[in-house]
Amino acid sequence: MTNEMMTNMAMIGGYSAVAFAAIGSAMGTGTAGSSAIGAWKKCYAQNKPAPFLLMALAGAPLSQTIYGMVMLIFIQGAAKDNPAAWPLLLVIGVIGGIAMGMSAWYQGRAGAGGCDAFAETGKGFANYLMILGVVETVAIFALVFSLMAMPTKTVDAESATKTAPAQVEAAVSK
Questions:
Q1: What's the confidence (pLDDT) of residue 171?
Q2: pLDDT for the residue 39
Q3: CATH code assigned to 3-173
Q4: Measuring CA to CA, which residue among 85, 93, 67 is closest to residue 14?
């Protein structure tokens, strides 16, 4: 398998991380967004002001897509430095992306509860946001632990023997 092909296989993991995280973000924002719309409807029906803060609760699951993009960037770098590690990078991207996507999905479910409660009572917004932060932490852990599992830059013996003399010669000539 060529280096280009191995790098491309690793990139499937990177794109999977973004895709699975985005799927979870869509599911989470859809769930919380539906609840926000229903809560606003209740407010309008009761001639109460509709709290704009529900947007924060509904939009919270979007950040996991950004984490997926961060993972893509790191996988891309690791694939260029160590293309032979493509199976590991593929698995890291897929499993890490699924973990981030699940976090987004369940963050949306928690956000839906927060939307309903806040619209009804007008109280507890900070508490609801803290719960979303706890669920968000799962995605951050998934990202960090995935990055820790990635291989570090490796240099094979053949390329080291070719580049080292050139680097020494360049340093001496200065």
A1: 56
A2: 97
A3: 1.20.120.610
A4: 93
Domain ranges of the chain: 3-173
What does R_g of the chain's alpha carbons equal in angstroms? 23
How many residues are recorded in the chain? 174
Entry pTM: 0.84
3 state SS of 112: helix
pLDDT of residue 174: 62
Short-list 149, 69, 68, 71, CA closest to 104: 68
Assigned token pair, 135: 């669920």
User: Distances from the Cα of 73 to the Cαs of 43, 67, 89, 97, 146, in angstroms?
Assistant: 43, 10, 12, 13, 12
Worst-scoring range by mean pLDDT, 39-48, 65-74, 95-104, 152-161? Answer: 152-161
What digits encode the pLDDT tens for the residues 133-144? 999 999 999 999
In 35-156, at which residue ranges do the beta strands (DSSP E only) sit? none
